[in-house]
Amino acid sequence: MANKFDAIVIGTGQAGPSLTNRLAESGMKVAVIERKLFGGTCVNTGCIPTKTLVASARAIHMARRGDEYGFSTGHIEVDMKRVKARKDEVSGASNSSVEHWLKNLDNVTAIEGHARFTGTKTIEVNGEELEADKIFINVGGRAFIPDMPGLDEVQYLTNSSMMDVDFVPEHLIIIGGSYIGLEFAQMYRRFGSEVTVVEKSSRLIAREDEDVSAVVLEVLEREGINVRLNAECITTGKKGNKVVVGVDCENGEPKIEGSHLFLAVGRTPNTHDLGLEHTGVKVNERGYIQVDDQLRTNVEGIWALGDVNGRGAFTHTAYNDFEIVAGNLLDDDPRRVTDRIMCYALYVDPPLGRIGMTEKQARESGRNVLIGKRPMTKVGRAKEKGDTDGFIKVLVDADSEEILGAAILGLNGDEVVHSILDVMYAGGTYKTISRAVHIHPTVTELVPTTLQDLKPLGAQQG
Predict the structure, then answer these.
(1) Radius of gyration of the chain (CA)
(2) Taking residues 152-167, what's their average pLDDT?
(3) What structural domains does the chain harbor?
């Protein structure tokens, strides 16, 4: 006989624990299931550990720049075992905190094991059947492994297995020139590895505007990272204890020899072994669960939150998924996914903060668009800090005066961009910011200045 609950939450990524808590607080009897590590990707193999590594890499980088700031540090010796230990401590504390929290909540049964649907209201885990009228899927995603010639002949790393590395690879070859690949490229170059990035597209982070891609490429190449673009046909193989990557590029040698291979070519949802075939829940051609504006699947009583629904793929969007479900289900608050303004960051150094439309999207929208742009070389705070790469760019609808989007690539760009984002959520016009008085000296103080010098987008170069 099935063990009955009011609700079952599968997965403990960013949405799952908070939803479990709210459901339990409302008086429901809840089962929460985790097959591996409490906290999901962000806590264990994503945001928290990688940004901890980024911080170590930046500290090492800044120490090497001592002469620019008037001091000498001598030879910098990187101890990757200590770097990894620091990362493990920070990440491990978050993991333990989530696990302890869930295992000590009233009305909650925390179960460790792999959950599979046996019906629309039943789950099998560890040989036991659980039943609930409400089931919430929060199983996240994993690194996508491409069907690449020769890949079965070599060992390779992903963002997950990279968390176990406690040494500096001699030559790290990274396939994939987008967010994950570039963050690891810069951090391991700063740790001391030779690094080569191989990207199929004609530029890095191709979803971004060309000016963003160009500055990021310039920064990475200046730090000694090799970048191979237009790699239309990528193959892998072995040569002794080396890994060999074949690249059909317009320029450069046709083969690259390295000590280690890192795959960063995208993510895929963990729906392949969930038993969804027993439910009728619809997934798209890439395996993402299809949901409506309130994150309900096509099957009554089943919701999908976080990376698995393909509606955000970020920690912050996953948490907002929890807020949307809780608002609609428990608070009589009709929140929707489409109320969300797109926002994310790229944590290379300097970081990129991105919200709303890109310049390309604005051009294609048919709107009468204004653009304001200011290089970081004209930002006093950036000059004082010695970090003048990048720019501030804001897009405005000339007719409604609403802010359409922004890209802040530069010192504190991932934080500064929120001053614009909050005005967008409030429904304010660009004049709300352009007439504001900000603190000097900061990067944010130049956002009003940028908005005071708007020009028609058509007059700008793409």
Answers:
(1) 24
(2) 96
(3) 3-142+268-339 (3.50.50.60), 151-265 (3.50.50.60), 343-453 (3.30.390.30)
Token pair for 311: 């509606």
CA dihedral 68, 69, 75, 79 (to 10 degrees): -110
Tell me the C-alpha distance between 124 and 115, whole Å: 6
Q: At what angle do helices 179-191 and 210-222 cross, to 10 degrees?
A: 20
Residue 249 binned pLDDT confidence (cut-offs 50, 70, 90)? low
The mean of the pLDDT values for the chain is 96
Catalytic residues: 440
Q: How many CB atoms lie within 10 A of CB 401?
A: 15
pLDDT digits (tens, 9 = 90+) for 75-130: 999 999 999 999 999 999 999 999 999 999 999 999 999 999 999 999 999 999 99
For 131, other C-beta atoms within 10 Å of its C-beta total 17
Compute the average pLDDT of residues 49-77. Answer: 95
Residue-wise pLDDT for 170-204, tens only, equals 999 999 999 999 999 999 999 999 999 999 999 99
The residue to which tokens 């939803």 are assigned: 19
**What is the percentage of the chain residues whose pLDDT exceeds 90?**
94
What are the strands of the beta sheet with 242-247, ordered from one edge? 234-239, 242-247, 255-258
Q: Whole-angstrom Cα distance, residue 131 to residue 216?
A: 50
| Inter-residue contact 111 to 125 (CB < 8 Å) | yes
- Contacts of residue 337, defined as CB under 8 A and 6 or more positions apart, other chains included, come to 291, 293, 294, 295, 311, 321, 324
Chain-centroid distance, C-alpha 369:
28
The rounded distance, in Å, linking the Cα atoms of 75 and 95 is: 35
Q: Who contacts 34 (Cβ-Cβ below 8 Å, separation ≥6)?
A: 11, 12, 102, 110, 111, 112
CA distances from 177 to 33, 141, 224, 419, 437 (A): 35, 19, 15, 29, 39
